[in-house]
Amino acid sequence: METIVHNPSELGRLASQTRSKLGLRQSDLHAHTKLATRFIGEVERGKDTAQIGKVMDMLESLGLELIIRSKPDKAKVNPHQLGFSKVRFWSSGDRLPVNRVIARVLADPTKEDLLILKECFGMGRVLSTWKQLKERHEVAKSVIPVTNSLLRKLTVT
């Protein structure tokens, strides 16, 4: 299995799912690693700050390893080639920064277009872009509940 993790929440979810698939409880992992069950729970819930050595010990105990690799060069894309259902882009030849493409789709989302974003760029990148847009107040307040609802549904699937 290979999974690209973009943030602590995704790492925690992966660790929790792997532990569950192995039939282990947090207390079982504690017995094997001597890490506090509280720490294990915090990591599984996506704690933003944690000692990397302890996290790596936890992952190793679950049969996971941390691999660092360069991101593929997808800094700019032609959104017209991605097959979005709504036209949100001005020129068919535009190559736009990925975050701008994601932002435009999130500003007027359809489930189909969010699925394209998820497939092309990963849910972690979509969610982090959404978080940044909301924090910088770069999205209309009326769009927030709709987009939040669609993103929640996609995150579960």
UniProtKB/TrEMBL annotation:
GO molecular function: DNA binding
Entry protein name: HTH cro/C1-type domain-containing protein
InterPro entries recorded: Lambda_DNA-bd_dom_sf
